[in-house]
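Q: Predict the assembly, please.
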Amino acid sequence: MNKIEVCLSPELIHLHDLHGKIVVVVDIFRATSTMVTGLANKVTSITPVAGLEACRTMKSKGYIIAGERNGQTAEGFELGNSPLSYLNNGFEGKKIAVTTTNGTLTIEKSKATADEVLIGAFLNLQATATYLAQQNKDVVIHCAGWKGMFNLEDSLYAGALVSVLDGQFEYDCDGAIAMKALFEQHKDDLKGFLSQASHAKRLQNHNIEADIDFCLTMDEFNFIGKLQGEELVKVAL
Amino acid sequence: MNKIEVCLSPELIHLHDLHGKIVVVVDIFRATSTMVTGLANKVTSITPVAGLEACRTMKSKGYIIAGERNGQTAEGFELGNSPLSYLNNGFEGKKIAVTTTNGTLTIEKSKATADEVLIGAFLNLQATATYLAQQNKDVVIHCAGWKGMFNLEDSLYAGALVSVLDGQFEYDCDGAIAMKALFEQHKDDLKGFLSQASHAKRLQNHNIEADIDFCLTMDEFNFIGKLQGEELVKVAL
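A: Predicted assembly structure:
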């Protein structure tokens, strides 16, 4: 049976051997939820870029540039980090370049050695689980956290994915055990539980309650988001 | 109101500012549980030493040397890392020098900048909480983990301490929220919940079930263990 591990912060990823494994990067509020929503709404591709400046230069190459730092749209960027911006196929056929505080760095740290990199969100939880169960590879769920710190929403997603895959993977990883238990305890009121969390409070301060609700919607989409070369693309099941 | 934070691994401690704060170092299986038990059983002091060689040289200075690596007594050491070794005042009046895989490194990383360093264990949970509530300082609970990784038993202790101190400290730290919820959910069967955990399994393989039971005993002792200079000593409440 293949193994599943949880890494609770990109500052701990060096403790995991990613060779030959599928890494699922998760930044629920909001990078990976937004990326999945963009792909669902027919953007051609999304290129994650770790740095603000590097991302800005992508504009001259024909990309729509999306940039967020500390929860807000970065200066000079056309888009911030809201999944709602992409609804109604608003950027159909466009190539997006995106940089965020935590999510894009986490993708960067994963792609160096992982066999495959997916982006995870509650929005396509079951689809991602179905894909993982069909491959014959070990899995690492890589939580973006907040500036290196553990965060609740990404960890709960990790617990959700371990929970959905229970019986199909084995795990000898305390992060997986803890987060599965925490998710199963709070899955019927994720929003209420998360309302205590530091990042949800930060987001509420920015008046993006609607983003939070959307990012906590389960199984809205039935495809996976996968890194191919430098680009995230939609892959149908 | 003072603040309480949880740091889930010594690999994340650089993200916390320890200046002016009390750090509670916890390595439930078994370093800090063993240290508390030694102090309860009248050892004079316990000097944590990060390295095996540095600890070995303490023998010639009159210390009893205790050394553990990967759960087993290190070669050439008089004691390993079992709390049961210290029962019945077996080392009364002795000075102990100790090195372990995770706990002593975590103490080392804490003492550089923290205002005070305590060692935490379920064995003196309430006493430690009582002491913390009487000081007017912020608190960081520093989990030793396992070789840098998150582990379940130390994180559950962190949750227990946050739970006991609820209402007396404020917390805006996702680690504190998550571990408090997890502890409160599983506090009536910590051993059952922990039996899934990777480190408990490792310990069971070493036939130290009795150590596990002892380390999960609540409030056996009513004092705190505190670092004074280079030595851990018993401080009565």
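The first helix of chain B runs from residue 31 to 40. The first strand of chain B starts at residue 4 and ends at 7.
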